[in-house]
Prior knowledge:
single chain; alpha+beta; Lipocalin
Amino acid sequence: MIRFRLVFGIALASLASLPVSTTAQDKPGATAMDLRQRLLGAWVLAGDVDSKSDPEPGARLKFWGLKDWVITQSDPKTGKLIFHHGGTYTLDGDNYEETITFAAENTKHMIGMRLKYKIAVEGDTYIQHGQGNSFDERWIRRKRD
């Protein structure tokens, strides 16, 4: 677990130095690169798209790089891994498609899956609407404490 935290700590530190705009580029019509820049970093699941609540302790985390992503969740009481998988993604405007290229044992059946979404990032909130899947979710940017 310490090694896992160290790897993600290093990844987050490198992502934190990249410029992320949340001003005029939050408006419709922003380019895919603008949206990609706003995705960078760590996010925590807050619930469905209509949820106004804060994330629960132990909520799943999702990390985005420029072309790669990873999602993970552990039990907040034990630290035991619940699931972990990730892969690559593409953007075409607000059309987001992710491909699962690796997974822990309990989600290995997902390897090769492609999931499509319509997405939006406004400030520190990320919203995704599943296209052909039920993953309509609201995420909040994870900030350093």
